[in-house]
Amino acid sequence: MEVLPKFDSVFSIDCVIFGFDEGELKILLIERNVEPFKDWWALPGYLVKENESLDLAAERILYELTGLRDIFMEQFYTFGDVDRHPQGRVITVAYYAMIRLNGPKELKPVTSVARKAVWYPVKDLPKLAFDHTKIFQKGFLKIRNKISYQPIAFELLPEKFTLTQLQHLYEVILNKTLDKRNFRKKMLNYGILKELDEKQKGVSYRAAKLYKFDRRKYAKIFQNELSFGK
Amino acid sequence: MEVLPKFDSVFSIDCVIFGFDEGELKILLIERNVEPFKDWWALPGYLVKENESLDLAAERILYELTGLRDIFMEQFYTFGDVDRHPQGRVITVAYYAMIRLNGPKELKPVTSVARKAVWYPVKDLPKLAFDHTKIFQKGFLKIRNKISYQPIAFELLPEKFTLTQLQHLYEVILNKTLDKRNFRKKMLNYGILKELDEKQKGVSYRAAKLYKFDRRKYAKIFQNELSFGK
């Protein structure tokens, strides 16, 4: 096992990348090809270089381990338990992102640190390396809280979607069943959905109407209506 | 100037502690008694020890630098710009807290790292050491955003308060004037305020009614009414 270098490795980045695909919420995992935790599934994560800001390190690491680029990631928590890394004290800054899934299920890492990168359903995750299960859970909680006051769901859905898809995404993230009539009424009342003159294609059941997200209205609504105390 | 030790000093904690006092939002600053930035005003912050979790380090550091104890702090962001510390690469995990101010304006540090700790009005901050102005601003933004969807204001107010005090706090944090009638109507409609059979004492003008925060109702309201998508 390598001994940790002294200066450029006492902190790392780990990424929780959420995607929504075929009615399932997924995250991106890598299969590690290095010690410690060789052959384990893990969040895409690695050590920050000495001359690298955290944001740039996150971009580089995600790219090297999964081939993914130009993903808007945000920091959400820093994990610093004394014994979280078997080789010494390493604190890790966790980032998350939500993206639309429409590419292949398996991605090609650029570095040999990861053998492969795969989209895994959140409801069926394997045991993860380090404290990565805890990091994932905190990230999941983050988007679960956020979906209640920000329309982040739209970042996960395709450009055009049905109300059923939208409701299903909320149900998956909130982990509960929502009343269809109430949900639709509330969503349409916000005025942030644009009804399209278009229906689903290629479905065997009755095609549903497609909607788009009205970004202009969204910005306005979320600055005013949902604010407490104004 | 000391050379940084190799392992237990590459990360630090900085604390943004908000208090509300005499109609002013304040934060706690220390006057540094050590290099670098000796004699400068700074956020209470210092290096994390090798065998210390981040949360415990935050508690210890706040106590040592300001004498404050048993404050509920939450992590809000980690700052890792390459050049943020003149002695080398130090990333800092920032914590914040909101507390009721009712003690002395100047606090007594336990360690000689800080000469004194003082409550400073946010609208009139001095130039701060390191990137602490940036850290403060991010913390301020955090509570500004949070006040729109969580009743954090109550953490800053005394147990019993008038609606005018409540409105003033919102105005200070949001940095804008709010319409009195709308504000009161909205606040009372939430049903989270308990009107007391008691009025202000010791004021020269007409005494206003006092209110308390109804914690039971609050929990209910904030789980249901303000949620998007349920």
Properties at a glance:
homodimer, 230 residues, alpha+beta, Nucleoside Triphosphate Pyrophosphohydrolase, Arc Repressor Mutant, subunit A, 2 domains, 8-stranded mixed beta sheet, 6 helices, 10 strands, disordered N terminus, disordered C terminus
How do the strands and helices of this protein lay out in sequence?
Two copies of one chain form a homodimer.
Chain A: E1 11-21, E2 24-32, E3 41-42, E4 45-47, H1 54-66, E5 74-79, E6 91-100, E7 106-107, E8 114-121, H2 132-146, H3 153-156, H4 163-174, H5 180-190, E9 193-199, E10 209-213, H6 215-224
Parallel strand pairs in A: 1-6
Antiparallel strand pairs in A: 1-2, 1-4, 2-3, 2-8, 5-6, 7-8, 9-10
What fraction of residues of chain A sit in β-strands? Answer: 25-35%
CATH topology of the largest domain in chain A: Nucleoside Triphosphate Pyrophosphohydrolase
Shape of chain A: elongated
The CATH architecture of the largest domain in chain A: Alpha-Beta Complex
Helix and strand succession of chain A?
Answer: EEEEHEEEEHHHHEEH
Total DSSP E strands of chain A: 10
Largest interface: A-B, 42 and 41 residues
Largest sheet data of chain A: 8 strands, mixed
CATH homologous superfamily title of the largest domain in chain A: Nucleoside Triphosphate Pyrophosphohydrolase
Q: CATH class of the largest domain in chain A, please?
A: Alpha Beta
Seen as an oligomer or otherwise, the chain set is homodimer
Q: Round the mean pLDDT of chain A to the nearest integer and report it.
A: 87
Query: Cα distance, first to last residue of chain A?
Result: 57 Å
Number of spatially distinct domains of chain A: 2
Unreliable stretches of chain A, pLDDT < 50, 5 or more residues? 1-8, 224-230
Number of helices of chain A: 6
Broad structural category of chain A:
alpha+beta
- Helix coverage percent of residues of chain A? 25-40%
Gyration radius of chain A (Cα, Å) is 20 Å
